[in-house]
Amino acid sequence: MRKHIKKTRLLLSSLSIALLLSGCGSIGKGVAEAILEKSETEDTRVCQVWGKPFNGVASYLANKQQNTKILFVHGVGDHVPGYTTHFLEKLAKELNLNERSAEQKNIQLNTPLLPNQNLGNLRVTHLLNEQNGQELTFYELTWSEITRKEKELLAFDTSGDYDFRRAKINGLLKKFSNDTGPDPVIYLGESRVPILAAFGQSFCWMASSDFAHLPSDGKHDCTNLDDSHASRIDKDNYIFMSHSLGSRITIDGLQRLAGMLAHPEKYVVGNKKMVVASKTLEVLRNKHIPIFMLSNQLPILQLGRELPEVAGQDARYCEANGADYKNRMVSETDIIAFSDPNDLLSYGIPHEFADKYIDSRLCAKITNVNINIANVMDAFGFADLANPMQAHVGYDTDDRVVAMIAKGIGHAGVAPLVKQRCEFTKEVK
């Protein structure tokens, strides 16, 4: 009997670990967590931050003369417009933005550079607090439409012809694997160009128009950033957020824009061409842009990739006395990389990574957030076990992450939850 119990426990443990290592998402919540997770009376999850102090979204909202705009870029797996709703509601509550526009605008992205390619959807929501006048415009990019067609190649694998041969749980895992696994592979192929074009179009709409003047729906392209937009760009605050593969897309998209801004004459189709005027370039070069990367994957997605167009020249581009200081894209890109060490698909960013693998014209600075999203527990005799699926997908609904994005760390205005639960170590050169 004792041997039977021991074998049963070993079988359950093996099954649990297999499930945990297979992917992320609803399967982890529905199956693995049901087997493994135990309630804890005290939340002992780690939250450690190394880098320089950074301000959250609240600091930008405080200046009512400026417009604050956030662009969110999703990662692997099929997404539909509205995927950020839970996160956005939590962020709005943390920022005390208790009203939002009745209308949500949905732009079907297009570009004359790829006239026959659907680039996905840009969903725009306007949040505000009428009492204090603070406003936030939130842009949600959904690029899944680009890869959805290619992933149909695997549809046969989960059809009735094949799926009935699998055990139920394995069938669920296979469906999930076929949905998420191909995206990084597809991104390395021909679809990389339209995905980056979707990012570029999203940024163009952010920079060229405010919420009231955006198209309500329909297919549109954005091509001009002339001097008429310079004053708006000067007053806008731009913030990027991304998850998993979305972080690679965001950095690649900004690096692509840096090349386009440096050589706009290369991007001409028919009678349409990209226009970036001198005043617009000048105000862009004075922008400070934070990027909040959830489940950051930059290191692993750099493997086998070419180096950026301009690399290892930060002093030349980012210091005021540098030879190419006037040719930078922005004054600083502040990358805040969130990573759960138990997230098998997430990585911290060593400081030397930015110097070698991020375009010098972005003037990137790195802050690493080491945070336990999933609880570490003792299950079935295995000490120090955590659910890597929850560790991968739970960032955008974790209260500490939302509070840090909202109010930053390392300064007097930090959120009480972050002050209580997170350790901050300032790094200086």
Structure overview:
The protein starts with a helix and ends with a strand. A hairpin with a 4-residue loop joins strand 5 and strand 6 (134-142). It contains 18 helices and 18 strands. The strands form four sheets. Strands 1, 2, 3, 4, 5, 6, 7, 9, 13, 14, 15 and 18 form a twelve-stranded mixed sheet that branches. 38% of the residues lie in helices and 22% in strands. The chain has helices at 2-20, 26-36, 57-61, 85-94, 144-151, 160-163, 168-180, 182-187, 192-208, 230-235, 245-262, 278-284, 298-302, 314-318, 351-357, 388-393, 399-407, 416-421; strands at residues 47-51, 67-73, 99-100, 105-110, 121-129, 134-142, 219-221, 224-225, 236-243, 268-269, 272-273, 275-276, 288-294, 332-339, 364-371, 376-379, 382-386, 423-426. The chain is globular. The chain has one domain (41-426). The chain is α/β, with parallel strands linked by helices. Residues 1-29 and 34-40 have low confidence and may be disordered.
